[in-house]
Amino acid sequence: MPRRGTPPIEGDMLQGTLDVLVLKTLQVGPAHGHTIAHAIEHRSEDVLQVEHGSLYPALHRLEDRGWIASFWGTSENNRRARYYRLTPKGRKQLEAQTTRWDEIVRAVNRILRPASE
Amino acid sequence: MSITRFFRRRYWDEERARELEAYLAQEIDDNLARGMRPQEARAAAHRKLGNTTLIREEIYTMNSFGWLESIWQDLRYGARILRRNPVFALVTIASLALGIGATTAIFQLVNAVEFRLLPVRAPRELAEVRPVSGSRWGNSTGRRAYATYAMWDEIRRTQHSFSGMLAWGVNRLDLSTEGESRFIDGLWVSGGFFDVLGVAPQIGRLFSDADDTPGCGVAGVVISDAFWQRQYGGARSAVGTTLRLNGRPFDIIGVTPPGFSGVEVGRSFDVAVPLCTEPLLEPERNAVAKRHYWWLDVIGRLRPGVTLEKASAELTAMSPAVTRATIAPQLPPQPAKRFLELKLTAVPAGTGVSYLRGAYQQPLRILLAVAGGVLLIVCANLASLMLARATARDREIAVRLAIGASRARIVRQLMAESLLLAGIGAAAGAFIARVFSGYLVTFMSTNSSRLFFDLGADWRVLGFTCAVAGLACVLFGLTPALRATRQNARAAIRSGRGMTDGRERFGIRRILVVVQVTLSLVLVVTSLLFVRTARNLATVDPGFRTDGILVADFDVHAANVPIELQPRFERDLRERIAAIPGVSAAVDAAIQPLVGSIWNDDVVVGGVALKTITNENHVSPGFFRALDIPLVAGRDFKESDLPGTPWVAIVNQAFAEKLLGTKQPIGRTFKLLASPGEPDPTYEVVGMVANTKYSDVRDGLGPIAYFPEAQMPTPDPQLSEVQVLVRSSLPLSAISPAITAAARAIHPSLLVSYRSLRADAEGTFLRERLMATLSGFFAGLAALLAMIGLYGVLSYIVTRRSNEIGIRLALGAEPRRVLTMILREAGALLTVGLIVGGVLSIFADRATETLLYGVKPSDPLTIALAIGGLAAVGVFASWLPARRASHLQPTLALREE
Question: Which listed residue, of A84, A113, B135, B579, carries a Cα 20 to 30 Å from B303's Cα?
Fold first, then answer.
């Protein structure tokens, strides 16, 4: 549940944003769709409410680009699940996109909170 | 996205579906663990995940080219619709196939004659050397031949524009050594012929400059792939064996690759021999040594960086030097002056050279236009049909529009159906075209001139077919599709069928019928012009009887007849033939009439060279009687008109009047302009005959002078050929064995070949026959289609208006009045179409003027005939639906709604 006072960001998340979040999630190790969805939700402290379904087209797209790879495995509670892992190409992308993200945040911040001295 | 994903999109769809299932299972597990009830857990999981169908669709489109997918869908839908209406599909496809097939077949010929590049290395670098002014005096062979051997040699040695040059001449070589001749098509070629073209041997080797050295005697022979297949079954062992040509043994040294048929379009070759073998194969001609013998064509390959214009300018600049160096010593002053004025130029030769191009370019273009007209009429018919079907599908389309389909989407779907029809029609048409164009080439060939075209499909033909199919598709599909979707959806759904129909929708179909009638009238007029031309040519009176005459050509080399014995020999031969039962006459003639052969000279009367030349012929006594040419005055030649007796001549009336200026020419004398150093006899006119046509039935009746065969001013040192005209009531096949036997009795190695004078003469207006037959066929087809169109529209109108007609009849209208009402409707359409068509054909048929004989393009009788014919058929076509309308049962018609 979202915390009171901070409504979750819903609807169309910036496409690139979701992509980089998925990549980041996979940085620690392979995971399946369910885990990824919940991980993003948890780590953003429920601010980023992803409709879990929209994750799958993103996964498909990333795999198509060769940033992630997939394989069928067995989940914690013994169910068949498709696992995703980061490819070297994906790792490079993650770095590049993180840097880019930082730049954007800094740029936006400079505008929203001009240094008051 | 990757193309492999596209082809595996179904696999991926299933894969993702399983993955989503896995997510749900996981989530439900989690929810249960959190203490939810099973049903609640499932619902929550689904909520969390969202719409799975949507997700799968999103992924699916990611794997696909959206437009491709939907076009494929449209096509499949179209195919389903067509399968449900097999008759409609069949009619449409068949008529399209005919239209596209006919157009493509003609285009294949146009392509072969005009556009197809020679299958040689860099064909665009080739240029033909051709004179543009001045005149050729002397002997020439074939319909081309723009150079003498001396000129070829001089040009080749002194030019700088070409990296290589080649010359060739055409010949007919005899494979046979006794009995009946077996001619094959041969080429004399210069040593560099194949090298310059860049043609490599299939097996063995081709000629090099070393093979073509003056005075070479017997050399090797190169054979074409077609001849190799025909004569040797494609056996590799053929190379190295010996082939007898005109009785001389030639070693086969190599075979040219398949697809290479020489540089002349419309003519292929069987064997090629070096130029230097000509004196050996044609000893009494020996054109290599004669500077007045035109028998070669010259092509060069432009040096890199040299343009055609530059080469042409160089050739023009060097022309005076070439003509001065190569002028024939025996040229009289006037021809000599004209020869020295010869200007050479270079013209592109990448598509080969051909006299056929001149003869067939315009006819083929007209035929292409005619076939295109037929295709347009087909399209009009189909458009009309599509409109009718669209009307029947009004409601379906209205519903689609109403539930939110965009107009573009529906137009696309309807067009997909048209595209499908056009595609299948084009494929079938391409097949028809192949068969048809092959048949056309056979039609254009005669016994004496085999035509050869490379008709293989290339990108031009393919592109043409696709373009035509696409255009047809737009023509017959787009308007109906646009109109079908312009309707007022609400009205269409509600109304079903109206009491009368909107005038507007009939409007377009009426226009289509008018266009059809117009076009078909133009085509019918055109075809009638050609049919009348062919008829005129076939029935024109040449001034003598052409039927029942067999032409026997004897090759008498082997008999070695010396000059003094030649008259005896010739007389012996024709008397033996005349003695054969069934033969009523056998006479000799140097020139076979009506097949384009010409022998002419300048005439000198009273020491003055006249401006008019005369055609001439050397004939034996009895020639005029055998051909039924009336002897108007004086006497026929006698067997006693021999060398040493006074020189005599028989002239025709035109000669007497135009050249001698008298109607009583007997006893008058004249001379022919002779070369310096040659005998210059004075001829006394001993007889006058009626005028006849000479080399071509299209020509007028010009002056002709006849001389005794035995009195040649310059006889050949060795007799080579004798041409005998045999009049007989028996067919050719019945009489030729006896003639062959008679010849063999004189000498065992005489060779003979046979032709029919009439068939040969008819061969010269083959082109007109082709035009008449084809345009007649197309025009018939066009008229038939237009009438079907008219019938269709009227039937449709009657059906749609059956309510109205029913009411009229129920209220007491006489059936006659209903009949007239419908007929009047048809009459209006026909009248407009015929008037417009009549005017249009006056303009359109100007293009045919040069191809007509004995009829003018805007011949009123022809146009009237065409209009009358079409009107009659048109009334008949509209009579049927009109009658049906007048016989409607009012009760039935009214109950239908």
Answer: B135
B787 and B650 within one domain? no
In a domain, B759, yes or no: no
Q: Which chain B residues are closer than 8 Å to A51 by Cβ?
A: 48-50
Beta carbons within 10 angstroms of residue B329's beta carbon: 10
pLDDT category at B134 given cuts 50, 70, 90 is: confident
Confidence of residue A5 (pLDDT cuts 50, 70, 90): very low
Examine residue B862 and state whether it is found in any structural domain, yes or no: yes
The Cα B99–Cα B96 span in angstroms is 5
User: A2 by DSSP, 3-state: which?
Assistant: coil
- Which residue did the predictor score with more confidence, B480 or B371? B371
When divided into structural domains, chain B yields a total of 4
Q: Do B5 and A64 touch (CB under 8 A)?
A: yes
B22 to chain A, minimum CA–CA distance in Å? 6
Residues B726, B618 within the same domain? yes
Other residues' Cβ atoms within 10 Å of the Cβ of residue B162: 25
Specify whether B523 is located in the same domain as B607.
Answer: no
State how far the Cα of B768 lies from the Cα of B531, in Å rounded to an integer: 8
B617-648 pLDDT, tens digit per residue, is: 999 999 999 999 999 999 999 999 998 899 99
Chain A residues within an 8 Å CB radius of B5:
64
Q: For residue B686, report the phi and psi dihedrals to the nearest 5 degrees.
A: -110, -10
Contacts of A32 (CB under 8 A, 6+ apart): A73, A75, A81, A82, A83, A84, B22, B26
Q: How far is CA B677 from CA B140, B324, B325, B680, in A?
A: 21, 20, 20, 9
In a domain, A78, yes or no: yes
Structural domains counted in chain A: 1
End-to-end CA distance of chain A: 39
Instruction: Assess whether B173 and B275 both reside in one domain.
Output: yes
Pick the last residue of a domain from B694, B724, B749. B749
Beta bridge partner(s), residue B223: B255, B271
Write out the residues of chain B at the interface with chain A, using a CB-CB cutoff of 8 A.
1-2, 5, 12, 15-16, 18-20, 22-23, 25-27, 29, 48-52, 54-55, 58-59, 62
Contact by Cβ (8 Å): B768, B536: no
Q: Which domain holds residue A57?
A: 15-112
User: Of B350, B367, B396, which residue sits at a domain end?
Assistant: B350
**Would an 8 Å CB–CB cutoff place A57 in contact with chain B?**
yes
Indicate whether B474 and B575 sit together in one domain.
no
Cross-chain residue pair B55–A64, CB shorter than 8 Å: no
- What's the CA dihedral at B601, B604, B605, B610 to 10 degrees? 80
Mean pLDDT of chain B: 87
Q: Does residue B821 sit in the same domain as residue B674?
A: no
Q: CB A32 to CB B55 under 8 A?
A: no
Mark yes or no for CB contact B59/A57 under 8 Å: yes
* pLDDT above 80 (res B173): yes
Same domain, B275 and B136: yes
Is residue A41 assigned to a domain?
Answer: yes
pLDDT in tens, B31-68: 888 888 889 888 888 888 888 888 887 777 777 766 67
A36 in contact with B at a CB cutoff of 8 Å? no
Contact call for B19 and A56, based on CB within 8 A:
yes
Confirm whether B457 is domain-assigned: yes
Q: How far is A113 from chain B (nearest CA, A)?
A: 36
- Give residue B412's domain range: 358-538+766-895
Determine if residue B667 is left, alpha or beta; phi over 0 gives left, psi from -120 to 50 gives alpha, anything else beta: left
Could you tell me which residues come within 8 angstroms of residue B286 by beta carbon, excluding any fewer than 6 positions away? B278, B279
Interface test with A, best of B1, B12, B19 (most A CBs within 10 A): B19
Q: Same domain, yes or no, for B532 and B563?
A: no
Interchain CB distance below 8 Å, A56 and B59: yes
